[in-house]
Amino acid sequence: MENMFRKIVLVSLVCCCVYDFRVFSRCVNSPHFVSPWTEVEAQTQKSSVTLEHECGEFPAKVELQIRPSSGNWTNFYFPGIGSSQRDDDINRTYGGIVYKYNKDEVILFIPKAKDGYPSGTIIYTGGSSWRGPVFQNARRASVRALVWCPSDFPDPTYESNWISLSNSVSGSFLEIAHNQGTIPDLVTVQIQQSGTEWLSDGIGSMTALGPNTSSWGGVIYGYNTSHVRIWAPSSKNGKLFSADDGWGSAKESWSRGLIKIKAWRITNMFTLTYALNQNSKSQISLNTTYNQATDILIVRIKADTGYNSGFMFPASGAVQNDETVSSFGGVVYSASSDTLRIWTPVSPGPGYLLYISNEWGNTLYPQTSTTATLMVHVWKSTTCSIPTTLVPKITKTTPPVQSTADPNSSKRQSSKEDKDSLSSKAPIVVPTVIGGFGLLLLIAGLIIARVLWKRKSKNRVEEEKQEQQ
Ligand SMILES: *[C@@H]1O[C@H](CO)[C@@H](O)[C@H](O)[C@H]1NC(C)=O
Ligand SMILES: *[C@@H]1O[C@H](CO)[C@@H](O)[C@H](O)[C@H]1NC(C)=O
Ligand SMILES: *[C@@H]1O[C@H](CO)[C@@H](O)[C@H](O)[C@H]1NC(C)=O
Ligand SMILES: *[C@@H]1O[C@H](CO)[C@@H](O)[C@H](O)[C@H]1NC(C)=O
Ligand SMILES: *[C@@H]1O[C@H](CO)[C@@H](O)[C@H](O)[C@H]1NC(C)=O
Ligand SMILES: *[C@@H]1O[C@H](CO)[C@@H](O)[C@H](O)[C@H]1NC(C)=O
């Protein structure tokens, strides 16, 4: 009996750890892969770079960090972009690095003229239609990729199936319920090219549309407390992903595919919120310091007006228009370890903070925002003590068993109910502490169960004895 009891305890402990981790731990690990800094230059032969991330499965999150190779601002990193919105057809500057990825690699596409103007650079914060703390336009830059495999993230609180999306009348807009009851801390939209293993990422508000004949693309998405809205291009040349014509020799574009939505809630996070309008500051202290090699910066813009009021959209990494031929939109950002910079369209003007034109999503829910709310998250990575997938590591967490003798353990269980208020204050400690509480709870339960069982069997024996008598 003792032996069996011990086995039950051990098995339960392991199960309990896994259960605890799944349910309560919302911490984010360091990325599985951080590439070395790679020098890139626009308008050269080397118009794409391939990096091997070795997840062996589709990553949960891919981030590019792009910084000037020299000059004053090498500590400010710009993100990469999920799809180009411009080609080389007009002699106007555009910038950025576009990327796609599969289970093993990330490919970076760098501006290079194909049959038009060599006007693409890598870092570009816009011309006179844009407002920001400094002006940056750089052909040379350093870039690195950070890749989080699924096991580096907690389990998503919502994950959709693969849903088809295309540039078509009825298939270019989706509204999917995620039913979280609160705005998730992160929502990703991954777009899989039809018939391939290549993924690209959804984007926020677009920054430009060129002339009618130009190549452009992307999948815009936004989300509120219950739903995700997805707009694919629904007019002629728009693709779900484009790195074509002006992005090297690669003929990279796809107009149909499958999308997967995932939503996360996490605890190890720092938040900053402020109103965006034509007078808002373009350089802000993050009020915290983050590690750019391990942590995640998430910059989003919430629509406060219009058809998409209450929906959050991701911010962008580079301006792809200048002296535009149409209305445009977007918020571009870069960040150092403690400061955020943003570039916004000059207002009033042809530019909007959030802009969804009738070229997208079959004209459903268009958006033109001149005011909005900026929301910044810093996810501080931490070493989650109990990875879900590695059983050997789980057994390492058994030492808490020693504390079973603690008579106060039953008291501690009650503080488990405080976990929500606790999590906002001491996010990094919480997963471990809660895990510990869970263990204590389970062990206390087992002890009580054992006592009850013993008592019961004792009673039974006594009953049997009485019956015999
Ligand atoms: C660096 O900053 C200084 C002072 O703000 C300025 O004079 C100089 O032009 C800047 N250099 C570059 C390369 O931007
Ligand atoms: C493109 O525009 C730039 C700046 O306006 C100008 O200097 C250049 O000559 C133009 N290039 C061509 C090929 O027209
Ligand atoms: C683009 O095409 C639409 C009709 O498809 C037309 O109304 C619009 O004026 C065109 N825009 C430009 C810049 O040519
Ligand atoms: C979120 O969007 C859905 C779908 O459009 C809508 O029904 C719901 O009212 C929105 N929620 C809030 C709080 O605005
Ligand atoms: C950052 O902290 C300072 C001092 O505590 C405060 O005055 C400021 O409002 C904070 N900034 C933001 C954007 O929260
Ligand atoms: C149990 O809690 C009480 C009061 O909270 C404290 O005085 C006592 O030292 C604790 N006992 C142990 C064994 O931790």
TrEMBL record:
<keyword id="KW-0472">Membrane</keyword>
<keyword id="KW-0732">Signal</keyword>
<protein>
    <submittedName>
        <fullName>Uncharacterized protein</fullName>
    </submittedName>
</protein>
<keyword id="KW-0812">Transmembrane</keyword>
<feature type="compositionally biased region" description="Polar residues">
    <location>
        <begin position="395"/>
        <end position="412"/>
    </location>
</feature>
<feature type="signal peptide">
    <location>
        <begin position="1"/>
        <end position="25"/>
    </location>
</feature>
<feature type="region of interest" description="Disordered">
    <location>
        <begin position="395"/>
        <end position="422"/>
    </location>
</feature>
<keyword id="KW-1133">Transmembrane helix</keyword>
<feature type="transmembrane region" description="Helical">
    <location>
        <begin position="428"/>
        <end position="453"/>
    </location>
</feature>
